[in-house]
Amino acid sequence: MLLGLLQSLLLITLSRHNLIGSLLAIETILILSYSIAARLGSASNMTEATGLLILAVSIGAIEAAIGLAISAVYRNIRMNLNLSMQTLLVAKPMKTPDNHL
């Protein structure tokens, strides 16, 4: 268990600029710890395993929320850029030839 915690700290340190990557590393290590504790099978290990699983699920929810927020911001920026381009195109009147009858 201590080795797993050290590995998770190492992964977080290596990917500290990548929030979702470090959350994935923590989640993976928690799920591995859960499976190890579940194999040992004692009541205290199962309580710890259940807590680890709940923590892993909540970290997964945080990852999903971050992903949704990033996609919403990206979609909003794209929509604003498209609207700006349409405004520029509509605001410029079309030039008509001077010699048309």
Question: How does this structure look, described?
Answer:
This protein is an all-alpha fold and 101 residues long. It has one domain (2-90). The chain is built from 3 helices and no strands. It has helices at residues 2-14, 19-40, 43-91. The chain crosses the membrane at residues 49-74. This is NADH dehydrogenase subunit 4L. Keywords: Membrane, Transmembrane, Transmembrane helix.
Please give the structural blueprint.
Blueprint: H1 2-14, H2 19-40, H3 43-91
Task: Output the keywords.
mainly alpha; 0% strand; 101 residues; rod-shaped
Give the domain tally: 1
Tell me the β content: under 5%
Secondary-structure content class: mainly alpha
Distance between the termini: 87 Å
- In total, the number of strands is 0
Q: Give the helices and strands as they follow along the chain.
A: HHH
Give the overall silhouette.
Answer: rod-shaped
Keywords: Membrane, Transmembrane, Transmembrane helix
Organism: Rhodosorus marinus
Transmembrane segments: 49-74
Protein name: NADH dehydrogenase subunit 4L
Summarize it.
With 101 residues, the protein is an all-alpha fold. The chain has one domain (2-90).
